[in-house]
């Protein structure tokens, strides 16, 4: 990459239109970007340990949903359509080189719909889509909606996912902050209505946990119908948050596919 192109990429990042994306380590020499989409209730801190473990040729950008972290004073979003529309605007300056999406749980659906929205608007497409702990959108939901539950029932349902550490579930002050965020995120995903469309032209690699109580192997493998470019599913020991223990293996898989896609292109 020549100096002028590198300088322009740095300018593009400095001029990001808003604070929807966090780049832990700017890598001017990168040949690819990976956008990481957090799960329900997740902030950029969910992927704090990921960026340093990617090869230097891959630059990471973490999606920062409103209503949490440094955006805690902003209104929460409970509509996937609205979220995708805003992300489309925010991400455009960073689509100047090859890129891919990784989304866990809620983030998987957001990443998928963003890829479709980019295509609908004639914008660049991801070279690969990585889906983690997320049922395919056409598969009937196996659990009833929980976003309308009273706080106690809502919290108990979240505990069943293994996503609420005991030290948080027993801290009322933290729960007062976290529960509204989780409730809005669950409303967003539980009211989402999938509209069938043409398969994506990028490969999809799906990751699942053998003991995930919310996403079965069959639900995960339903993603195969959403690509014309190849599908593969890989499974790891663990529950819905298997990515914590399997982080390095998943990063290695992402990097391998990202580099393969680059060489093929």
Q: How would the blueprint of this fold be written?
A:
Layout: H1 3-14, E1 21-22, E2 32-37, E3 58-63, H2 80-91, E4 98-104, H3 106-120, E5 129-132, H4 151-161, H5 166-169, H6 172-190, E6 204-209, H7 217-221, E7 231-236, H8 247-264
Parallel strand pairs: 2-3, 2-4, 4-5, 5-6, 6-7
Antiparallel strand pairs: 1-3
Helix pairs in contact: 2-3
What is the compact description of this entry?
By secondary structure, the chain is of the alpha/beta class. Helix content is 36%, strand content 14%. It has a single domain (3-260), classed as Rossmann fold (3-Layer(aba) Sandwich), CATH 3.40.50.1820.
Report the CATH superfamily: Alpha/Beta hydrolase fold, catalytic domain
| Total strand segments | 7
User: Low-confidence segments, ≥5 residues, pLDDT <50?
Assistant: 5-17
Question: Looking across the biggest beta sheet, what order are the strands in?
Answer: 1-3-2-4-5-6-7
Description:
This protein has 265 residues and is an alpha/beta fold. The chain has one domain: Rossmann fold (3-Layer(aba) Sandwich), CATH 3.40.50. The protein contains eight helices and seven strands. It has helices spanning 3-14, 80-91, 106-120, 151-161, 166-169, 172-190, 217-221, 247-264; strands spanning 21-22, 32-37, 58-63, 98-104, 129-132, 204-209, 231-236. Strands 1-3-2-4-5-6-7 form a seven-stranded mixed sheet. Helix 7 links the parallel strand 6 (204-209) and strand 7. The radius of gyration is 18 Å and the shape is globular. Mean pLDDT is 89; it is low at 5-17.
């Amino acid at each position: 990459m020549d100096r002028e192109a590198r300088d322009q990429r740095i300018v593009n990042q400095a001029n990001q239109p808003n604070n929807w994306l966090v780049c832990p380590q700017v890598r001017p020499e990168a040949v690819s970007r990976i956008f990481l989409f957090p799960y329900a209730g997740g902030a950029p801190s969910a992927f704090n340990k990921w960026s340093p473990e990617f090869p230097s040729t891959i630059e990471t950008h973490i999606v920062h949903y409103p209503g949490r972290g440094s955006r805690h004073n902003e209104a929460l979003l409970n509509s996937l359509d609205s979220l995708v529309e805003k992300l489309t605007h925010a991400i455009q300056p960073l689509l100047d080189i090859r890129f891919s999406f990784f989304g866990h749980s809620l983030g998987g659906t957001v990443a998928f719909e963003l890829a479709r929205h980019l295509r609908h608007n004639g914008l660049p497409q991801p070279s690969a889509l990585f889906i983690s702990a997320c049922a395919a959108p056409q598969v009937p939901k196996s659990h009833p909606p929980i976003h309308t539950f009273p706080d106690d029932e809502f919290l108990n349902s979240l505990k069943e996912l293994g996503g609420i550490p005991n030290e948080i579930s027993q801290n009322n002050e933290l729960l007062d902050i976290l529960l509204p965020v989780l409730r809005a995120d669950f409303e967003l995903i539980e009211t989402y209505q999938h509209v069938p469309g043409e398969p994506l032209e990028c490969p999809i690699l799906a990751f699942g946990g053998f003991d995930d109580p919310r996403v079965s192997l069959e639900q995960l493998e339903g993603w195969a119908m959403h690509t014309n470019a190849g599908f593969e599913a890989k499974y790891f020991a663990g529950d819905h948050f298997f990515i914590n223990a399997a982080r390095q293996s998943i990063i290695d898989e992402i990097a391998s596919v990202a580099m393969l896609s680059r060489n093929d292109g």
